[in-house]
Structure formats: structure tokens, C-alpha cells
Amino acid sequence: MKVKLKRRHIKSLEEEVQRVHPIEACGMLFGKMNPTEALVEKVVTAPNVLRSEKRFEIHPETVVKMILESEKEGQEFVGLFHSHSAPAYPSSIDIKFMKLWGDAIWLILATFDGKFAAFQMMDGKVKKAVLEIE
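Below the sequence we write its predicted C-alpha cells.
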């Protein structure tokens, strides 16, 4: 899977991470997705209702609202974003929830080194996606 993002999306997510640090930042990704490529057209950050440095959760009403607004704009849900104080790899808790979100992309920013990585659950296994920043 290839995940395409714009440089402005990356900048927006980095700013959100700095703004809420040390709490995990989180948000949702919208755009277009097919079996080989996810094109991110919009990122929407959201409050981490857990206010945790190790876990994130977006309020269910916020999730529904963001999805409905994006569908009105002709975009579909592509995935989730969050930050880690650890390397940019899904934690055991992330992996548990990845199974519930189907083929959604999970974009992670490691706050200690500023590296982004994207992952997708495929056939019950975590697969790293190729990030392409335009």
C-alpha cells in the first residue's frame, strides 16, 4: 500500500503534536482509497479524550461528525493518525484496535525523532505502507 500526503498535511500534524505534547496527538485522515493506494486529501486533528501520554481515543461523536462532514465533501475515511513517544510502530494496543478498523491506514509520528510511518492491517498482520509526501 502506498500512502500519499501533502507536505502541508505533515506540517499540520507536526504542529498539533507540538501543541499537545506530552499528550498523544490524534486525528483522522480523509481522501480516496483503493486496494493499492491511499490519497490523503484532508487531515483533521481531534482532542485525545484520554489525555494520555501512551494512548489515544477520539470521542465517538467526533468520529461520526468528521466522517459525515467528509462524505458531504466527497471524501472517504482513509485512516487514523496519532503520535508516539516511542518509535513510529504500532503498539500492542494499536494492533488490537487496528483489527477493529479494517483496512484503515494508521499514520504514526514518533515524537523523539520526528519520523512518520504508516501501517495497515492486512490478513491479520501489520504491514508497513510506503509513505509518499508530495
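The chain has a mean pLDDT of 96.
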